[in-house]
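Please predict the structure of the following assembly.
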Amino acid sequence: MTRGIRRAASLLYLIPLVFLGIFFLYPLLALFDLSLRPDGILDLSAFIRLFSSDYYIGVLIFTVYQALVSTVATIALALPCAFVFARFRFPGKSLLLSLATLPFVLPTVVVALAFAVVLGDAGLLNDLLRALFSLDYSPIQLERTLTLIIIVHVFYNFAIALRIMTSYWSSIGFAAEEAARTLGANELSLWRDIRLPLIRPALLSAAVLIFIFCFTSFGVVLILGGIRFATLEVEIYYQAVSIFNLPLAAALSLVQILSMLFMLVIYTNTQRRLQVSLASGAAIARRPRTLGQRSAVFACVLLIGALLFTPLLALLWRSLFLTGQLDLSGYLGLSQRSRASLLFITPLEAVFNSLRYALLSMTIALALGLIASHMINRRGPWSRLSDPLFMLPLATSAVTLGFGFIIALDEPPLNLRSSWLIIPISHTLVALPFVIRSVLPSLRAIPPTIGEAARVLGATPYVKLWTIDAPLVSRGIVVGATFAFTVSMGEFGASLFVAQRESVTIPVVIYRLIGDPGLASYRQALAMSVILMLVCAGGFLIIERLRVAGIAEF
Amino acid sequence: MLRISNISHVYGERVSLKNVALEVEPGEIVCLLGPSGCGKTTLLRIIAGLEATPEGRIMFAGADIGDTPVHQRQFGLMFQDFALFPHMNAADNIAYGLRRRGFPQRSIAREVESLLERVGLAGLGDRDISSLSGGQQQRVALARSLAPKPRLLMLDEPLGSLDAKLRDQLALELRQIIKDEGLSAIYVTHDHREAYAVADKIAIMNIGRVEQVDTPRGLYRRPKSAFVAEFLGMFNIFDVEGSRFAGLICSEALPHKANTKMILIHPAGIRIGQATASRSLRYDAVLTSAVFRGDYFDVGVKLQDETALRFSNPTLPAQIGEAVSIAIALDAVIALES
């Protein structure tokens, strides 16, 4: 009997593997094929064009450059904050640390729009400055500048840097620093000789991770950069969708995938150096005493609060008071298409689309993720192989995924090109690593003896599964499900590729509405963004309340 | 009742059990005693059915149970880390095995109450596991494994994760409860004092083999091998051919065992001062070390031929470096298997 069960379980394991094979590896191979053999024979002309043209070299350089500047800016802001968080105890600290991760679940479209609302030419800050100093022009001119893109990247990645460096700092403690102080070190030499060298592994690890995220930035650059700035991701999108130069887009995708793999290898290396014994950070933190310490804490709280809440509150405010007084027409008009709009469905229908796809992606991702987690959790060769395998979609940008989908899944027997199913499937791929990373820690936290105790007490394998394993993993399951739902709701890059006229989702509709002329579309875009922001923030609250330690790996 | 014979088990490349045989009679507490890695936990897991029976036979009440799945063996196992279910309170933990046997709800409640009382946790049934102290968790784990009235109770280092003071007290209580329930039990430990306190019979294990099976007193008086003697905390083990002192005392004490290779001078038979046993030998020695232990002293002496001996002595009649006279009882010289 047990042998039969084991065989059935092994068959079950095949399901997520087959899914990954068909919907991830196959489109990826199709991409490789298209870039290397556009007409069935080896033809590297796309690559030759790519590397001999100043334009594409420029795109590559810009992609690296903006990622580099964003990374340096993020680290520079987060480093002092991480020190303050590790060193000092103050009310609201853990709340703030957890709130700081909110951007992680916010869709790029929403955030890009929110920053345009604050810092745009007609944004709130310019309004304020004009009113204060009676100006007749906008003093802040950030629209379509690299600066704005970098500010948004800092918004997104600040929490990553803060969390990685704070937890590392708490774990290494401050003994070395105190020793140096007794030996006569002043504040300057403390930073130079003790703090920076000690925090280096965490700093590097955070920097590489942030660089990867910015390197693959799509929505932010597409919306805020206009036609002036294009990263690799944006260029792939232009080539594939606007110019329809598929071989070149595929070649760019290949460059993108290879750079990602290269950077991930570096990241894994920096990660390995981070494995230190984790002492409790709470014991190290102490109350700020001097005026300088208090102002440092205050400045940190202010910075994080401003960075985090200004754009989100501004978005909410603008959606309600666009013309100065309360105006709900953006919300009330969601069931209608604005006259100028190029959309084929109403925004409200898109909301239902998004909800439907998110529920479906959540269900599939959860089912696949549970099976995959169970497989990874069993020790043995399966586990070592499948763990990195299921993380691969995370290492592939959503744009590449979407592009792979439309070129691979467009002919029988798998012609999904015109089916709405292609959207939840692509979302499932993006969400799957999140589900696994949520379920796996709670699965791993169950000591094997607990299951054995149940068996000795007379539980059959099934009864053990229902009475012991299921209740113990339930929190991880809820967190994973919420992650999947939130990720699907906000997914932009892949959706932009695969969504059809009638199957567009909220982020895609927001993007289209921003591009439409007229105030009516803009109102609708704001209202949709607020709705999406609230849904994602709700998801974030559930995740933060229930999650088991270990998800901070991202 | 339980008879296992010829059990061998290979764990990866390593042989973890080799031709192990063991018998547990009804109502008997057998201790598996040995250092970590000697295979005692593996043996326990094989008996419980958590590891497949590789080679050999496991008979229980006359039936071969080698192929019976874990949940049908009706054995109880108390884990070293207790393995309590963290999502259930104390009472639900205890009730788990009773529910699996399909007892009616009301009788389960009654049984849980009575068990909580027997292990000294009356009134704590609705407490969360995490809110209980280590000693209380240990009692819940014991009650849980007792609840379904197992045909055989197994305990894997049940006191291992508790501090020393609690351990002494709980070892006695544990024995009393097992005896009150009239259970047969296998008790795994690496602490010989704990084994002395709990066991009716001790099986001492070394690298996958059972070295000796005896009562606690029998084991203490007549350790069979150097390993057993050392594991029980005894010193003064000598190679008969390698030491003049050992050769002489061996021929004096064990004249009929001419081919003895190793001997133990049992610590109970060495004293500073006058001999208490009828047949004993006297030696001149120098006191080299003395450690105060409260009721006695651990002392070290050196004989004139440089042979070092360690034993405990009720008093300390001399200072370190001074000459003492020691007496060794001839019946304290024990031949060891090599």
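The radius of gyration of chain B is 24 Å. The first strand of chain B starts at residue 2 and ends at 11.
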